[in-house]
Design brief:
Blueprint: E1 3-9, E2 15-21, H1 26-36, E3 53-59, E4 62-65, E5 83-88, E6 115-120, E7 123-126, E8 132-134, H2 136-142, H3 145-156, E9 172-177, E10 180-185, E11 189-191, E12 194-196, E13 201-203, E14 207-212, E15 217-224
Parallel strand pairs: 1-5
Antiparallel strand pairs: 1-2, 3-4, 3-5, 6-7, 6-15, 8-9, 9-10, 10-13, 11-12, 11-14, 14-15
């Protein structure tokens, strides 16, 4: 069977892309990602009970656990582009725990950014919820014409252009997931100077500068509440 590419999320903002054979067992996938994320996944809960980690899969609008660890990915119908979720069977991270009701002195309203804009020169592009794939080709189509001419002239003259650090086809993506704006890195990418590991995602907040590639092309990002 051909390999299948899918994402495994272990929090609302953290995930990793996997590409494996569809005959691999669900239990083997759980063991592999637990080993890779040993520093991020606790072994026990607040009551010192051992956490049983399982994979969840979207089905009819709900996330259902894949309890049979001996089934293969093809048997549980994992397909290209799927999202799976690694979580505690008893208390998945997307379900808020019950808390005692307490009186609050004041109510703080949390505003979640609903809109995201990428700045290209004087022009700003609004990012749809499905996201935008950033690449060298995309930048050349969006940057002001005089900037494109300047950078191409550098290339012809044998001079360094920051665009050379950007992948031609797929470098990174800006998208929205569970109400949170995220950056997904396919190649070397930086947020305000902080490197984002390839194949992972990082949350975006407020205003930030994304740099595509080492000493690559900068793109300004702005998040707005409305």
């Amino acid at each position: 069977m051909p390999p299948v590419r899918f994402d495994i999320w272990w929090s609302a903002t953290d995930h990793k892309t996997f590409k494996v054979d569809t005959e691999i067992l669900v239990g083997d996938v759980v063991s592999e990602i637990r080993e890779q994320l040993a520093n991020y996944l606790p072994e026990s809960d607040q009551r010192n009970a051992v956490i049983e980690y399982v994979l969840f899969k979207n089905s009819q609008g709900m996330r259902v656990p894949l309890l049979d660890r001996k089934q293969s990915l093809s048997q549980v119908q994992v397909v290209e582009g799927d999202s799976l979720y690694l979580a505690s069977l008893q208390s998945p991270w997307w379900i808020a725990p019950e808390r005692p009701v307490t009186l609050q002195a004041s109510v703080v309203r949390v505003v979640t950014p609903r809109r995201c804009f990428l700045q290209f020169g004087a022009a700003a592009v609004e990012v749809p919820d499905a996201g935008i794939q950033l690449s060298r080709s995309y930048l050349l189509s969006m940057l002001p014409s005089h900037v494109v001419v300047r950078e191409k002239a550098k290339s012809f003259a044998g001079l360094k252009s920051r665009l050379h650090a950007v992948s031609r086809s797929q470098h990174c993506a800006v998208l929205r997931h569970n109400g949170q704006w995220l950056l997904r890195a396919y190649n070397d990418t930086y947020i305000d100077g902080r490197p984002i590991p390839t194949g992972t995602t990082a949350p975006l907040s407020g205003s930030a500068t994304i740099v595509l590639g080492h000493d690559g092309w900068p793109v300004e990002v702005r998040l707005m509440a409305s």
